[in-house]
UniProtKB/TrEMBL annotation:
Molecular-function annotations in GO: ATP binding; protein serine/threonine kinase activity
This protein's name: non-specific serine/threonine protein kinase
Keyword ATP-binding: yes
Organism: Piaya cayana (Common squirrel cuckoo)
Keyword Oxidoreductase in record: no
Reaction(s) this enzyme catalyzes, per UniProt: L-threonyl-[protein] + ATP = O-phospho-L-threonyl-[protein] + ADP + H(+); L-seryl-[protein] + ATP = O-phospho-L-seryl-[protein] + ADP + H(+)
């Protein structure tokens, strides 16, 4: 009946539409309302009816046509602004319905705005309101819905975008209908222009969510910015002229704020505009009359625009002293957290551009406390991807760095320090402490609008500063796995968080060094106990807390997934400290590494990195793993199997130009050989030859470790005797080494060669090994060396011919003299040295032959 132009149909339809609108506006039961919309195909059916009316010449001639269209749009407006439009349903995806409805409305909007019969502009205003609320709804939806909508607005509906811009500045709209009086038109003009302005602001305002919608809207903002600067920038001048209109100020600021993010040229134009600076000062001083809430939001937007222009233009704004005074006033006096945050951010940018700020603790610390305790509701995202707390932590760091020792101590022991960690933990998405420790914390993404990736780094810099200055106050906070510090550091080093962090830095403007910097800062905090003179009990508590938080396992994943090898040095060093302090950490790391080929690949790559520190620390870590248990040998074999270096990785490391790497590799081999002669070693035939070469290395540490490894190799019958035989002269030479430990190892190794007596017995006798060991046992100045020589002599004496050789050397007399000197009374009743016992046992072994 409506399409046929019948009044009866219109009189029936309008009440129904108003009932529908009222039902949707109740928001009583979202699931029920969603089902209601599905049953009636709202709003698509209503938008289709509106389209048919606009295309029907008969209906458009009716005096009630505009009323029906306005009522249809009113229902669509309520739908677009209601949460039920995004309610998940078991049938068709509601987000898809929302998108289809939005696209349908967008195509219809130019006709709705241009309808000649709309003499009182009611349809125009309702349509613009619908568009404004649609944009606000889209900004909160998934980018798969919102991004295509804004792309369509920019690419396919440029004329609509242009019209929104042009109509925002009209003093008076074109007259529509002969019956319209001039006075009525003038009365309607400003409200309609305001609606156009609100719609334009909604189209390009930066959404709070950081996703594809923000990128799509930035393109829309760029289009608007380009239009504003066309010709002599007349449009821009008109827009700035609306800044002091109470109903328009905020929307003008939103348009400028979005445009300055998208266009550096617009920033440069605004930087030369005295009109802008004067208007911003008026707004900040409250000289433009408006409601209190609107005034607060306008102040926030004005401060952010000033900060954004400072960043984009790399220069301080005009009337600098006045700007600083106003900003400081907001910081110290405003009760609204978002306004304080925007003022703090502006001061931070001014400080970074050389403006001297005089900070007083009694003024700043209460501000910090208030900001960290009161929840913030942002109206606009901070400039250039920053966070609300970024500037706060920057100024706090600047304040504490003024060398006020008393203030540093007070802060480190204050509730504010703990409060800062709790706030950061919440912002970064840390769930309950128990859930976080059990790995069940929700995968909530960090709220980057409160603390940006760069702001996270600033906070960690603040934490490092406090740890450096007041370590004794901070270390106890690392001794409990449920403490906010440990749980937050666990979050910062979790793969899920670092993946979110890395995603924020994707693209041309991203900083590839940010993720490594966050990891390194977090590791530096965890390294403090090991870098200071801390008692063993504290070290044990810290290690236990870190272990229980599963941080060691995370560190390995972080290194393998999120760090270039160059940046893996500190995490690897931290792992070494943890392993030395707690063997349970070894099991955790081995499980984590063995569970992922990616982790194994990282460890293999690290062995041959260009970083000496990384390679040596990894070799130390593997050495501790090898020492801990033979159960870890399969894991070690996976890492040490040949790859990319002529299939001889260990051989390559034994001949490395850096002596530390040669020494650590020898040490690793020695510990591997404690458990046997694993297949990984047998598969590298040149390994023992390289190891023997290390016995005569120029570096003491290499000779010491090599003698240890050769001694353990000699103990195993599976080790090739022919190769071991070539070690005899080298080991005998090492009995004169300056290093006590090296002489001990050499003596033990010569004794272990007796395990291969069938092959090497003649060589050992011809080389006078028993004779040399006897001389060492009697004459070496170090008790430990004499003991090892005696043990080796006892072992060799089990073989034929050795005892006779010793007797021919008058061993019994020499050993008796040695035993006699060892049996001399010692001060304070000290026990006999171990060498004395071994000396007596060897004498007992030789006694039957001597008496015979």
């Amino acid at each position: 009946q409506v399409l046929e132009g019948m009044l009866e149909g219109a009189s029936r339809l309008c009440p129904v539409l108003r009932v529908m609108g009222n039902l949707l506006a109740t928001r009583c039961d979202l699931e029920l309302l969603d089902h209601f919309c599905q049953e009636l195909n709202v709003p698509l059916s209503l938008l289709c009816l509106a389209k048919q009316i606009l295309e029907s010449g008969n209906t458009k001639q009716q005096p009630w046509c505009i009323t029906v269209l306005t009522d249809l749009l009113a229902v669509a407006t309520v739908y677009f602004s209601s949460e039920c439009s995004l309610e998940e349903s078991g049938q068709k995806d509601s987000t898809q319905v929302f998108y289809e409805s939005a696209v349908c409305f967008l195509a219809l909007l130019p006709k709705l705005l241009a309808e000649p019969a709309d003499s009182e502009m009611r349809l125009c205003q309702q349509s613009l309101m619908c568009f404004t609320l649609l944009c606000e709804g889209l900004d909160a939806t998934h980018p798969s819905v919102s991004a295509p909508f804004y792309a369509s607005l920019r690419e396919e509906h440029k004329t609509l975008l242009n019209r929104l811009l042009q109509q925002s500045f009209l003093e008076q709209p074109a007259l529509r209908g002969a019956a319209m009086e001039a006075q009525s038109a003038h009365a309607q003009s400003l409200p309609v222009a305001d609606h156009f302005m609100a719609a334009l602001a909604a189209a390009c305002t930066i959404p709070l969510e950081r996703n594809g919608c923000r990128e799509a809207k930035q393109q829309v903002a760029w289009e608007v910015a380009e239009k504003l600067m066309e010709g002599e920038s007349q449009q821009l001048g008109r827009l700035l002229g609306r800044l002091d209109h109470p109903r328009c100020s905020l929307n003008v600021l939103k348009i400028l704020y979005a445009g300055c993010h998208a266009s550096l040229s617009l920033c440069q134009h605004l930087g030369r505009s005295q009109q802008l600076w004067d208007s911003l000062m008026q707004l900040l001083k409250g000289e433009v009359p408006m409601a209190e809430v609107a005034q607060g939001t306008t102040c926030e937007a004005s401060l952010y625009l000033l900060a954004l222009l400072t960043v984009q233009l790399q220069a301080s704004p005009p009337r600098l002293e006045e700007v600083v005074t106003l900003a400081v006033g907001f910081v110290t006096q405003s009760p609204v957290v978002s306004i304080v945050g925007s003022a703090v951010f502006l001061l931070t940018q001014l400080s970074q551009h050389g403006v001297a700020l005089k900070l007083e603790g009694e003024e700043i610390l209460p501000v910090v406390t208030n900001m960290l305790t009161v929840s913030a509701e942002l109206q606009l995202p901070p400039p250039m991807g920053a966070g609300l707390y970024d500037g706060l932590f920057f100024l706090l760091l600047k304040l504490l760095a003024q060398d006020d020792v008393a203030m540093e101590q007070d802060f480190a022991t204050s509730e504010l320090w703990s409060m800062a960690w709790h706030r950061v933990a919440a912002v970064l998405g840390v769930g309950s402490y128990r859930a976080a420790l059990e790995g069940d914390s929700p995968e909530a993404e960090p709220d980057w609008n409160l603390l940006s990736p760069q702001g996270t780094l600033v906070f960690l810099s603040l934490a490092l500063f406090i740890f450096t200055r007041e370590s004794h106050h901070c270390l106890p906070q690392l001794t409990q796995s449920h403490s906010v510090l440990v749980v937050t550091l666990k979050r910062l080093l979790s793969p899920s968080f670092l993946a979110c962090l890395a995603q924020t830095q994707a693209g041309e403007d991203g900083d590839p060094e940010l993720v490594p910097a966050v990891v390194i800062h977090a590791c530096q905090l965890l390294c403090f106990p090991f870098a200071l003179d801390v008692d063993e009990d504290t070290i044990a508590l810290v290690t236990e807390a870190v272990r229980d938080a599963q941080i060691p396992a995370q560190l390995l994943q972080v290194c393998s997934h999120h760090l270039p090898l160059l940046h893996a040095e500190l995490p690897m060093s931290l792992l070494c400290h943890l392993i030395v302090s707690d063997e349970q950490v070894i099991d955790q790391i081995v499980r984590a590494a063995a569970a992922s080929e990616h982790n194994i690949a990282f460890l293999k790559s690290a062995l041959f990195s260009d970083s000496v520190t990384l390679t040596t620390d990894l070799l130390s870590l593997l050495t501790h793993v090898a020492r801990a248990s033979p159960d870890h040998l399969p894991f070690l074999q996976r890492i040490l199997k040949g790859f990319n270096v002529a299939d001889q990785p260990l051989t390559h490391l034994l001949t490395h130009q850096q002596y530390l790497i040669r020494a650590r590799t020898c040490n690793l081999l020695g510990n591997l050989l404690r458990h046997g002669f694993p297949q990984v070693l047998q598969s590298q035939p040149g390994l023992l030859e390289s190891l023997l070469g290390c016995l005569v290395d120029q570096e003491e540490s290499v000779r010491r470790a090599a003698s240890f490894a050769v001694g353990n190799a000699a103990y195993h019958e599976s080790c090739p005797a022919g190769t071991l035989g070539r070690a005899v002269p080298k080991l005998m030479w090492l009995l004169n080494d300056v290093q006590t430990r090296t002489r001990c190892n050499a003596a033990s190794a010569l004794g272990n060669l007796g395990c291969h007596w069938a092959e090497l017995g003649n060589l050992l006798m011809e080389s006078s090994v028993p004779h040399i060991l006897l001389e060492v046992a009697c004459r070496d100045p170090q008790e430990s060396v004499r003991e090892r020589a005696l043990i080796s002599l006892r072992a060799l004496s089990q073989h034929p011919g050795v005892q006779e050789a010793l007797l021919s050397l008058r061993a019994t007399e020499k050993l008796a003299a040695l035993a006699s000197s060892d049996l001399q009374p010692t001060a304070w009743g000290s026990p006999l040295p171990p060498s004395a016992r071994h000396c007596e046992k060897l004498l007992c072994l030789l006694a039957p032959l001597h008496s015979g």
